[in-house]
Specification:
The chain contains 9 helices and 21 strands. It has 377 residues and is of the alpha+beta class. The protein has 3 domains: 201 residues, Anthranilate synthase (4-Layer Sandwich), CATH 3.60.120.10; 35 residues, no CATH class; 120 residues, no CATH class. Strands 1-10-9-3-2-14-15 form a 7-stranded antiparallel β-sheet. Strand 5 and strand 6 form a beta hairpin. The chain starts with a strand and ends with a helix.
């Protein structure tokens, strides 16, 4: 399968995504934070050749306007669908391109129930798919360092994408977002404090060392998901930000964390644990950063998660190759300071995509330690 690279004269990936907002399957992997070592490229694509969604064990694949549904393991189904596609290399002279066609989508937290045996304690009150992935034969790649874009993919898909992008021009001003309802949590204050007490009891009993206790906030606004995302990327730019319109929902993400970078030989994960807000003045900001770096509690929690991720990668790594080249490094973003580590390993030759996904997902920084017991709780 041949791949071509053509220049694109548009103004920005934001302008491209806005122009494509009505095209099904719009995805935008957005390195909205420029200037760092992690965020050079952004990827915009639409109109996937096929999509795969999973709700529980019910799988649906849509391709060429035809849908097929069956029951099965979504992790295995996703790996099988991706591995069935031919491996395509970047054209000569373009080895630095991060994408020449492939799968883009999201894996929901509940997908972990298909990896580990967990009690059914959650209620699906949103209706989002546990997994929604599309296969894109072409994409716009934006080089943030050079400040220019190229279209890459199969000749037919590039031609179709260029037609979709035809007329992409200036962006409208970002909308002022006004909440139409109060911000509401899915916890009451009393319920949240009780959950904290239960977590502390499990820690005291030695069941777990830490657990990631989260809550969901809801609010109604008069704006589209892309309107919201445009404001989010302005307020809190991140190297792994994203906007995805897949599986019947819009996913908005502003993340500095990389769960997995992998090729056929090497794997890397960059867990984050330990956070402080930015200060109102340079002096206060420096004080908060120093406080985080000096915190015995935060470092202890961080090392627990690094050890967890070392163990996860070790399940699919060559023996003796798991390393931590960077431990608890301070990283500063628009809203917060974080402690971040880098864990690397050499991938075992027999570790296929399904095995790697099962080993690493969900990430330790959003679960707890030990991971399986934290998920059970």
């Amino acid at each position: 399968m041949s791949v071509i690279v053509e220049p694109w004269a548009g103004a920005s990936p934001e302008a491209a995504a806005w122009h494509l907002r009505a095209v099904p399957g719009l995805v935008w992997l957005d390195s909205s934070l420029q200037g760092g070592r992690l965020g050079r490229w952004s990827i915009v694509a639409c109109a996937p050749r096929w999509t795969l969604t999973a709700r529980g064990r019910r799988l649906t694949r849509v391709e060429a306007g035809s849908a097929g549904a069956w029951d099965g393991d979504p992790v295995a189904a996703l790996a099988s669908a991706i591995e069935a596609e031919p491996v395509v290399a970047a054209p000569e002279g373009h080895a630095d391109l991060p994408f020449v066609g492939g799968a883009i989508g999201y894996l929901g937290f509940e997908l972990g129930r298909h990896i580990e045996r967990l009690p059914a304690t959650t209620v699906d009150d949103i209706g989002a798919a546990d997994l929604a992935v599309g296969w894109y034969d072409a994409a716009l790649l934006w080089d943030g360092e050079a400040d220019r874009g190229v279209l890459v993919g199969t000749p037919e898909a590039v031609q179709e994408l260029r037609a979709h992008l035809d007329g992409a021009g200036s962006l409208p001003p970002r909308r002022e977002l006004v909440a139409r309802t109060p911000l509401r949590s899915n916890f009451t204050r009393a319920g949240y404090l009780e959950a904290v007490r239960r977590a502390l009891a499990y820690i005291a009993a030695g069941d777990i060392y830490q657990v990631n206790l989260s809550q969901r906030f809801s609010v109604r606004v008069h704006a589209s998901g892309l309107d919201l995302y445009r404001r989010l990327r302005q307020i809190s730019p991140a190297p792994f930000a994203a906007y995805l319109a897949l599986g019947g929902v819009e996913v908005l993400s502003s993340s500095p964390e990389r769960l997995l970078l992998a090729d056929s030989e090497r794997m890397e994960t960059r867990p984050i644990k330990g956070t402080r807000p930015r200060g109102a003045t340079p002096e206060a900001d420096a004080c908060l950063a120093s406080e985080l770096q000096a915190s015995v509690k935060d470092h202890a929690e961080h090392v627990m998660i690094v050890d967890l991720e070392r163990n996860d990668l070790g399940r699919v790594a060559e023996t003796g190759t798991v390393e931590v080249p960077e431990l608890a490094a301070l990283e500063t973003y628009a809203q917060v300071h974080h402690l971040t580590s880098t864990v690397t390993a050499q991938r075992r030759a027999d570790a296929n995509l399904e095995a790697v996904l099962r080993a690493i997902f969900p990430g330790g920084s959003v679960t707890g330690a030990p991971k399986i017991r934290a998920l059970q709780i």
